């Protein structure tokens, strides 16, 4: 049974999701105007909406000494998901364009006394980790909010070490004619969810999985459906993709 506090936070979040139109000239300004009023209830609402994040992180098998960049990492909830493993990592970077969510991440870092987790206000298509290439890059429900998502993936390739891993979990719809072995959503699913999420500038695409499979060696793919708060029968489709950068990848060097 939800508490009164949760119901009030949910009402505030639903107001922002349903009625409040975002303002701003730039993508960063629009994101902040969308998230500023709902940052307090963000984690509690999204843990019932953004399914598969823990499963994606489990599949990544983060190992001691690794450096992990969470692109569009928001409040840092993903770092919490990996439990004690975080202490064994060399460094974690949470990159996001919404200051109100990054403030929540800073509070979490202070509360948990994580000394190896840093927050960066920056764009996922351009962020350069200060200490060079990294072992793992993740996008959890951020790719659908990044207008040039393909540039974000290509940038992730640039900052990953050879053999590095990428982990993505996000909403999607299947192509009308998917590759063999992939799910085929019926037309109503392919029509409804992109329209529904577009109201909040979340753009579902049938192209994520084919693009990711083209750029990375597949290690794991899962396709599922998850509950949506206050929509009793609806189940939104999402995927998990874990890929590896080819060890012989000769991606061009970048200079920070
Ligand atoms: C639905 S939220 C997901 C947040 C977090 N990854 C999670 O799982 O709770 C999408 C996030 O992507 C961020 N975002 C959108 N476009 C971005 C960009 N170009 N660069 C960095 N972050 C971005 C938003 O500010 C937001 O925090």
What number is the mean pLDDT? 92
Output the radius of gyration: 18 Å
H/E series, N to C? HHHHEHHEHEEHEHHEE
CATH fold category name: Rossmann fold
Q: Could you state the CATH homologous superfamily?
A: Vaccinia Virus protein VP39
What is the CATH architecture term?
3-Layer(aba) Sandwich
What ranges have pLDDT less than 50 throughout 5 or more consecutive residues? 250-256
The CATH class is Alpha Beta
Q: What's the helix count?
A: 10
Give the tally of β-strands.
7
Strand content: 15-25%
Supply the number of structural domains: 1
Decide which structural class fits the backbone. alpha/beta
- Name every ligand kind in the structure: S-adenosylmethionine
Numbering strands along the chain, what is their spatial order in the largest sheet? 3-2-1-4-5-7-6
End-to-end separation in angstroms reads 50 Å
Give the biggest beta sheet: 7 strands, mixed
- Helix fraction, binned, reads 25-40%
- Assign an overall shape: globular
Topology:
Blueprint: H1 4-18, H2 27-35, H3 42-46, H4 53-60, E1 67-71, H5 77-81, H6 85-88, E2 91-96, H7 99-112, E3 117-121, E4 134-140, H8 149-159, E5 160-171, H9 187-198, H10 208-215, E6 217-228, E7 231-244
Parallel strand pairs: 1-2, 1-4, 2-3, 4-5
Antiparallel strand pairs: 5-7, 6-7
The structure holds S-adenosylmethionine.
